[in-house]
Amino acid sequence: MKQIEISDKFTNKFLSDSSLHEIEPEIQQAYQTLVSHSGAGNDFLGWIDLPVDVASQLSRIQAEIDRLKNDIDTFVVIGIGGSYLGARAVIEALSSADAKRNAPRILYAGNTISEDYYWDLLQQLDNSNYAVAVISKSGTTTEPAIAFRIVKDHAERKYGKAEAARRIIAITDAKKGALHDIAQQQGYSSYIIPDNVGGRFSVFTPVGLIPIAMAGHSIEELLQGARDMRERCLKSDSVVENPALRYAALRNLLYRQQRPVEMLVSFEPRLRYISEWWKQLFGESEGKDGKGILPHSLCYTTDLHSMGQYVQDGQRILFETFLHVEESNHRVDIPHDEQDLDGLSYLEKKSLTEINHQAEQGTIMAHNAGGVPVIQITLPTVNAYYIGQLLYLFELACGVSGYTLNVNPFDQPGVEAYKRNMFQLLGKPGYNK
Ligand code: PA5
Predict the structure, then answer these.
(1) From the alpha carbon of 201, which atom of ligand 1 is closest?
(2) Which of 136, 137, 288, 379 is the least crowded, having the fewest Cβ atoms under 10 Å away?
(3) Is residue 137 lining ligand 1, measured as CB closer than 6 Å?
(4) Catalytic sites, residue numbers
(5) CA-CA distance, 24 to 30, in Å (whole number)?
(6) Which atom in ligand 1 lies closest to the alpha carbon of residue 81?
């Protein structure tokens, strides 16, 4: 079976022949620190074994989905950051691959405080038959807490308290937090986010698995992909054989060449939320102590017509990482047109994927010529199995890359600053102006 591969073909021009070997000892040391649990944040490494450890929970998750899915047409997922992006990334990536699935639509809440957003959501819920997953590790994050209060109130008015409680699933800490307490008191079906798994590393816990399964996608295949990538990554500490180490090595080499910005690029719009998840993973893990590669993302060819100019000709501070997808899931032909007034008949015999690939190849050549190195990650196709592989690869690379940068990749102290100010401004008890 084909595997995800990382190519340095389009970084070669920018790196000396020996550079991968020169950085390898540092990468290996960071990797050892990670897998031996001896570095900073080592109490948050439960994610390394999650694809294996979570197996015992799958039958309960499936029973939960079966209990609700035939009664509802809509599933509301409430959460923010790591309690939201992994599920959305997988669901959006797979929505076209599994086009025939019979599953409720997914609506998201708790990732904004926009009043108009909630007004729209409530209009939709008036006309939906829905259930809810409320997800918060701390159980106290303001955005999902506000959303849950609004949605819970709507559900209790629509269905009555007891039936609303039957339709609510809480995913939170085992022992503490407001959400934990509400769930206990109201008797919601509850799932635990393990203490040793941080939010942005929690996609393979019920945080990601329940919404993904409810959306009709195979969490078994997703986890199989993650397990296979885990096995591959734990087998070797060579930057040639281990794709996570290869990726961590390449991005750190480019960072050291005064390229502090990494653009994750795809020619598949449905991977857009994979990029959003990746941005949080790397941004929150590495951006500290005045260090870190700034993660940014673009979707081509769309963004070639907005940001392409900057990438080609702007400040030479960036490198790109292309998510190259070899095979699409579906086929759409370019129709024959006798008159050929648009001059497109030369493309008639090509598939859209062939055309998209040539656009991708042309872009890499142009950006390389313009001074932008490109790391290429090849996915054989977009399905649950390869998305599972990709997410695990990024998680492991992130841990290794963070230790290579000499930061603690598993905390996020900077996220608290805005909260303190917001609470003061809002007059939250205990936060004096
Ligand atoms: O990665 C993280 O820890 C954060 O992004 C959190 O996931 C995010 O802040 C949401 O926190 P919580 O799940 O506690 O509501």
Answers:
(1) 1
(2) 288
(3) yes
(4) 284, 305, 419
(5) 10
(6) 5
> In 3D, which of 185, 187, 141 has the Cα closest to residue 168?
187
CB of 266 within 6 A of ligand 1: the answer is no
pLDDT digits (tens, 9 = 90+) for 21-36: 999 999 999 999 999 9
- The whole-angstrom separation of Cα 328 and Cα 381 is 6
Mean pLDDT of the chain: 96
Give φ, ψ of 328 to 5 degrees.
-85, 165
Superfamily of domain 46-219: Glucose-6-phosphate isomerase like protein; domain 1 (3.40.50.10490)
- Domain positions in the chain are 5-40+222-409, 46-219
Instruction: Give the model's pLDDT for residue 96.
Output: 73
Question: Residue 411 gets which letter from DSSP?
Answer: -
How far apart are the C-alpha atoms of 20 and 307, rounded to whole Å?
A: 30
pLDDT at 286: 97
Distance (Å, whole) CA 218 – CA 250: 32
Using most ligand atoms within 8 A of CB, pick from 44, 47, 138 the residue to mutate for ligand 1: 138
Separation CA 305–CA 267 (nearest Å):
13
CB 10 within 8 A of CB 368: yes
Q: Would you say the pTM of this structure is higher than 0.90?
A: yes
Q: Per residue in 67-76, pLDDT tens? A: 999 999 999 9
pLDDT at 97: 64
For domain 5-40+222-409, give the fold. Answer: Rossmann fold (3.40.50)
213 alpha carbon, distance to own chain's centre: 16
Rg (CA), the chain: 23
Task: Say if ligand 1 is within 6 A of residue 177 CB.
Answer: no
Strands 168-172 and 130-136: parallel
> Is any ligand 1 atom within 6 A of the Cβ of residue 180?
no
Q: What is the pLDDT of residues 191-210, one digit of tens each?
A: 999 999 999 999 999 999 99
Query: What does the alpha-carbon distance between residue 354 and residue 367 come to, in Å, rounded to a whole number?
Result: 20
Distance 220 CA to ligand 1 centre (A): 25
Residue ranges for the chain with pLDDT beneath 50? none
Query: pLDDT (tens digit, 9 = 90+) per residue, 80-127?
Result: 999 999 999 999 999 876 656 689 999 999 999 999 999 999 999 999
